[in-house]
Amino acid sequence: MKRLCVYCGSRPGSQPAYTEAAKNLARALVNRKIEVVYGGASVGTMGVLANTVLAEGGHVIGIIPQAVLGREVVHRGLSELRVVTSMHERKALMAELSDGFIALPGGLGTLDEVFEILTWGQLGLHQKPCGLLNIRDYYRGLVDFLDHAVSERFITEVHRAMLLVEEEPERLLDQFERYKAPAVAKWVDRTSA
């Protein structure tokens, strides 16, 4: 893995553990010589992640839509800042540049990004690992819901297993190294018919 995309919040969250997790992930990525692709902001856990990677000597690529560029939230000290025309283009470029995807705790934007990229994997559009860093059990309700969707036969077990979940960055990165995408894309899956 050369680069990983990290989805994270434009807010720090209510607990110091969330910003600490962004720092720990940043250090783990730099230690493995993995570059970071992210949304390009200087605020929230996004800013903490980028600042820590840069402070540790790593490489950070920020991708930001033109509409957000004039706001104070843009990180002006990145290794690279790429400006795109839309959120759709942002997500597509993040996917193109990255060898995998990690979501730290975050809000609606983080959820949108992780579910879109997970769906692309389900459809066979990429074979890259996707994971949640489940800090302070932040994603427990979401993981429980996905398991419920499996039991209700809206998601297959094979596709549910595509979303890796860990509490520690190193363990998640180890899982990424071993990840093998399922051989069955949604369109040829006969088990849910």
SSE order and pairing:
Layout: E1 3-7, H1 16-31, E2 35-38, H2 44-55, E3 60-65, H3 66-69, E4 80-84, H4 87-97, E5 101-103, H5 108-122, E6 130-133, H6 140-151, H7 157-160, E7 163-166, H8 169-178
Parallel strand pairs: 1-2, 1-5, 2-3, 3-4, 5-6, 6-7
Descriptive report:
A 7-stranded parallel β-sheet has the order 4-3-2-1-5-6-7, with helices on both faces. Helix content is 44%, strand content 16%. The chain has a single domain, classed as Rossmann fold. With 193 residues, it is an alpha/beta fold. α3 links the parallel β3 and β4.
In short:
The chain has eight helices and seven strands, in the order βαβαβαβαβαβααβα.
Question: Class in CATH?
Answer: Alpha Beta
Mean pLDDT: 94
Q: Could you give the count of β-strands? A: 7
Query: Low-confidence runs (pLDDT<50, min 5 residues)?
Result: none
Portion in beta strands = 15-25%
CATH fold descriptor = Rossmann fold
Q: Any idea how many domains? A: 1
Looking at the structure, what is the overall shape?
Answer: globular
Taking the alpha carbons of the first and last residues, their distance comes to 35 Å
Radius of gyration, Cα only, in angstroms? 16 Å
CATH second-level architecture: 3-Layer(aba) Sandwich
